[in-house]
Amino acid sequence: MSHTIKEIAAALGAEAFGAVDLEVTSLAEPTVAGADQLALAMSEKFIDGLAEGQARAAVLSAGTDWQALGLQAAILVSRPRYALAGLTTAMDAGPHIAPGHHATAVIDPSAEIGDGAAIGPFVVIGAGAKLGANAKIAEHVSIGAGAVIGDDAVIHSGARVGARVSVGDRVFIQPGAVIGGDGFSFVTPEKSTVETARESLGKADVTTDAQSWTRIHSLGSVTIGDDVEIGANSAIDRGTISNTEIGDGTKLDNLVHIGHNVRIGRDCLICGQVGSAGSVVIGDRVVLGGQCGLSDNITIGNDVVAAGATKIYSNVPAGRMLMGAPAVKMDTQVEIYKAMRRLPRVMKTVDALQKAVFKRDQND
Amino acid sequence: MSHTIKEIAAALGAEAFGAVDLEVTSLAEPTVAGADQLALAMSEKFIDGLAEGQARAAVLSAGTDWQALGLQAAILVSRPRYALAGLTTAMDAGPHIAPGHHATAVIDPSAEIGDGAAIGPFVVIGAGAKLGANAKIAEHVSIGAGAVIGDDAVIHSGARVGARVSVGDRVFIQPGAVIGGDGFSFVTPEKSTVETARESLGKADVTTDAQSWTRIHSLGSVTIGDDVEIGANSAIDRGTISNTEIGDGTKLDNLVHIGHNVRIGRDCLICGQVGSAGSVVIGDRVVLGGQCGLSDNITIGNDVVAAGATKIYSNVPAGRMLMGAPAVKMDTQVEIYKAMRRLPRVMKTVDALQKAVFKRDQND
Amino acid sequence: MSHTIKEIAAALGAEAFGAVDLEVTSLAEPTVAGADQLALAMSEKFIDGLAEGQARAAVLSAGTDWQALGLQAAILVSRPRYALAGLTTAMDAGPHIAPGHHATAVIDPSAEIGDGAAIGPFVVIGAGAKLGANAKIAEHVSIGAGAVIGDDAVIHSGARVGARVSVGDRVFIQPGAVIGGDGFSFVTPEKSTVETARESLGKADVTTDAQSWTRIHSLGSVTIGDDVEIGANSAIDRGTISNTEIGDGTKLDNLVHIGHNVRIGRDCLICGQVGSAGSVVIGDRVVLGGQCGLSDNITIGNDVVAAGATKIYSNVPAGRMLMGAPAVKMDTQVEIYKAMRRLPRVMKTVDALQKAVFKRDQND
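Output (structure tokens, whole complex):
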């Protein structure tokens, strides 16, 4: 499938220059671009590669002198990463899931399947489930009894949507994601060692009496808004009584763990391997870098941004930028890190001071 | 399905008051409870919600004046979370896996299937596998050759139970869990950079000679006790020669990684995204918070409790409460964290002291 | 299947002593070894167990006086772990995937299947995919359109190989691994809070203007070299324009997350739950301990070794040994950790010094 430079620029809302009727078949990095490809050279380091490759047309940052680069055509954009979104959307043929319902799919007769939905091999759809119009369900997907999938949703191979889970329109679920596992919620008949530890902050002795864990069943479900993305092999547990919730426009990366009863707002970015314990409330537009961890029952305000591997043990006010384990304000943490690197040497200085001032060696 | 207040109280071993023949259909949080639902208001913050919702009956903490709350009936409990276990168990209809063996399942003729076992679509059961009575096996599950599954076990969709793996009675395996992957165990013909690093604690130069990894195959299996729960998309590797072992009553949350040859005792709680390298020995009743990490070949004593994201690099005696990276005693770590926050300012004090005492600036 | 001591020694390139025609059926730890098993007692702590078990033959470290141990035969090896690789390889019958193509597999007519390939139940192979000779594809595996799988590759149950992904010869893919999910790449029309946070290192106020994320589609794929291993439930995302790459001989453990556009060199070891954000470049022979984290767009030189749970936020030169969060040189980090443990007490010393020298209390 080929596109003209003019068509692509129009899709981006950007301006095209030169031979705007030139056709390209796909995108490429400049050094490896063929004569029929559109080179992406929006940043300085890529521009030099144009001479090395064969591209006759390129996407460049606004203000670049495209003619000096020997190109026949160019598209100039003011926000390169945003242009990349438009470019890749325009050139993506989308996942290949054959139209219709594959003969091997096991679809309960009481399930309602929307117009234009595509259902792949070995899919299982439970009683009373509802599938939106044009939803694409890849092979080996499970959709539990009573689950609801929105219009234009794409569910990749082997993902699990549990019973009564609700998923909005235009949601992408990557392979192997599990939505609606049971919450991790157990209780002992008597007070457990972990309760004692929490209450005493580790100062109390731990009793060694036997304790067995009784299961708190998960009667709630999971509600996922519109335009959400769930990464590969992520796991979102159902709520105990109410539902676990993911707001509209929120994106979860791979291998993310969301515990029972968690409520996440809208337009958040939850990066790879983030883990949230149960009953956490996360506001809107929150960004959690990869491997962040959240203790249970805390609240994260709107617009919080946490650097990768930040471990958050307590409530965070709106707008705070965090870093570190345990999390503190990002600029404070930068100072702490600098101080930590100096620490071994400063310790020696303190020892010397102690000796000089108190006429004795340090005794700690 | 509805239950009377009297029946529910009896199931909990708790006392019922008022119109104990009132029928309820399900549980709800007080603010959203309908007239046919049982409101859960065991903590102070939920009691106010009763007036907002429609519930005529509620579960309350012992000592609460239920009549003053305008309720027609009440169940009073002394340990609310434990009551929640009983309540949710009573109200949970359980996962829907149709009785019998689905026509699409591929079951080796030599497999032994217990009475009352339910086997879903597209399940694959290998040669010589044994399935206990009333086991429920959801769609897309793999059960390898020679694997043994206990009575009343529930294995959710897409979970993988490898060849020769043994799983006890009443075990819950959440979707996508993998039990019996190969151990991550490789060796180079000559000493590798990682061995050099460990021996020298990072002081030695790393040689840059090429090294290729040779696979140590996993001939052992995995043995899982009774009443164990394995979370969604968790992975438990088989042992090299002997088996990896998970003791009775131990619960693993989502996305947990258990390396080869690990032996975990009974009644442990291993929270989300915990990772244990190979050959770790974990005692009984150990609680590891989310994202804890354990180095290989260490021993964790009975009743150890580690806060979330604790990284444990060495042996831990029984009963110790741990926090931090690297792990230290929880109360010590709390002091270290406090000190770290003061650190940038204290550094300035030390600089000033150095100048005052030694008449020169700090030179570190 | 039984082997003579002589045969096994020959397979290892090691020397056999005593009754070298003795036959053994499998390997065992000394204490539990039967008379027909070969005991593994290469380390001191296992030698005592020989008396407890029934083994008549054992593998021992070079120089051990095997006759004094009451054995009838022995194999002496100079590098025990390397010998273990040879021993387990020799004794592993390999995963049981029946030869031929299972009747239930859905194989596109345009796919090319190599000689001797074994394809299990419910496998789905897309249009134009190519499967190498003797590849073993277990049940419930998906192989996308245009994917290429090398000779002798083993793909375990439920793994997902996405469209156009290329996998080399002799690769092992453990159950549930996802290769070729979409990259986690989103952009806002205007500058986002996370961009502001990065630029200001957390010092700027975060605007609370609404922002929605636009998807950057992943048009690239994933290229995996020969002799690679991918752990259970790991996830490797496809590139945006070019491909994500894993070099020959590199091994990934369970639950590893590799973001879009990452390029990993050859013969690396990437341990359990490591996460790499997008566009990271990792050299050859790099070893990352469990739960390491890598920020996006950084470069890790050849032969870098990072201890478990090291969090790497910036470029690392070749040969460096790292530890800690944030990562610093391993020996420096060991000093920092020691200093941190002393810190609460040293703080008191500084307070006392401040009082003595400046005649006032600390005021920080």
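DSSP finds six helices and 40 strands in chain B.
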